[in-house]
Amino acid sequence: MKKSIFIITTFTIMFAFIAQSCDRSASDMERAQTSVIEAERDLDIAQSEIEAEVRIYRQEKANSIRENNLAIAGIKEKIQHEDADVKAANEVRITDLERTNRDLKRQIDNYSITNRDHWDEFKVEFRNSMDDLGNSLDDFFTRSTTSIN
Questions:
Q1: Where would I find the H helices in 23-115?
Q2: What gap in Å lies between CA 50 and CA 98, rounded to an integer?
Q3: d(CA 13, CA 19)
């Protein structure tokens, strides 16, 4: 009994959907097609905007990474004149900073665009990492590694 009621209900619902879809007019279909075309166009525009934004952001960050490389080279030159113990400790720190800078360059170069939310999250995380690296470079000599005696 339950099966027959279920089967009858299912056929009734299917028939209702089929009947309803047959009643659609040509103008409804045209409107739907127009909406799809507009949505695709809007999606293409949004994707183009994100791609342009990523391209500009990569250029800006490539400049920042070059500046970091110059700062690292300057620090390396300065630590050449220090005592052996201090020099060794600073060389370890500068190696870590160089690795971080290379990793950031690799991240920005290899970023693939997925969607706006992911891009915004990536930018925030990347900016924070770049800021941390920049602060570490700026404060390299203010951190006390010279107290090794």
A1: 26-79, 84-110
A2: 29
A3: 10
Over residues 82-131, the pLDDT tens digits come to 888 888 999 999 999 999 999 999 999 999 888 888 999 999 999 999 99
Determine the pLDDT at residue 3.
Answer: 63
Neighbours of 75 (CB within 10 A): 19
Q: How far is the CA of 42 from the CAs of 4, 39, 129, in angstroms?
A: 48, 5, 33
Break the chain into its structural domains and give their ranges: 55-138
> Quick check: pTM over 0.70?
no
Residue pair 71/137 in contact (Cβ under 8 Å)? The answer is yes
